Fold:
Amino acid sequence: MLEDYIKWYEYSLEALSYEVVNARLFNGIKKIVVLGMGGSGIVGDMLSSIASTSNYPVYVYKDFYIPRNVIDDSTFILSISYSGNTLETILSTKKALQHTNAIAIIASDGELLEIAKSNNLPYIIVRGGLAPRAALPIMLIASFKLLSSCGIELISNQELLKAINILRNIDEAEKISTEILGFIKSSKLPTVVSSLRYAALAIRIKNEFNENSKIPVKVEILPELFHNDIVGWEATEFKDKAIFIDSDIEYENKLINFYADYLRDIGIDIYLLKLKGNIIERFIFGSLIIGIASVKLAQMRGIDPLKTKSITMYKKMLQDIRSLFTL
Structure:
């Protein structure tokens, strides 16, 4: 699995050449809703943050349905499922189809692609055979390309190419991942801290250590954490480790440093993950670093990072109760 992370630059260049089937312009679009779960859903979280400086707000729904009141004539829906068989995404996409055809799909195979084909929706077929979490840059790049082909420009092609180029820095990514591995290897319940703008990366770090390394992880997001999480440390004797994600905004780093000092004073070890570039570069390079670190931690623990038996149990249970879901 480690090899798949190391090939992210190669995979990203490949994604630039993916064909958009049934591409067409959609007029009057003012907002985007992304549907997806897990390794596919995190793409929506990142798109939401990246789009904060664009003309399009991006909302993310991770459930078996999409609320009717978020769909109107100005809504564009992007459904992402790496396997194409994620039941939550399939059902929410079918519900959306009852109200609009402004829907596009990204998948490697499966039922979601059949929905796209039978309804003449725009879609991209991405490379298959990977763990969904290892396909992050493929799905992110495919999302930008698909949206652009439908007349929705979140970022320029130049920005996208610049972001992809950072994935060439494998030696740097491996160096930082080794530092993080040494820092976190003895942790029982690490905490990840970030500003709201980088919440998607904090969640991604949590998810990678959950799935690849099989360890629980806590996430705290500032400034909200200063109104709740921070108090939770006041009377506890639990001491562990925390990874902080730095920001490209000065006042956010002031808040990060304040909280890091606070946690140090009560005995929590701190690692500051410093990233470079714009928000897209930070998202994908930070994800690369943590992907490598989490796989190496799994190897150190004698665990197969690919196997997620509890998720398999959940998916089997869903199939058993699928008839209970109504459209």
The chain has two domains: 2-163, 169-300. The two ends are 37 Å apart (CA to CA).
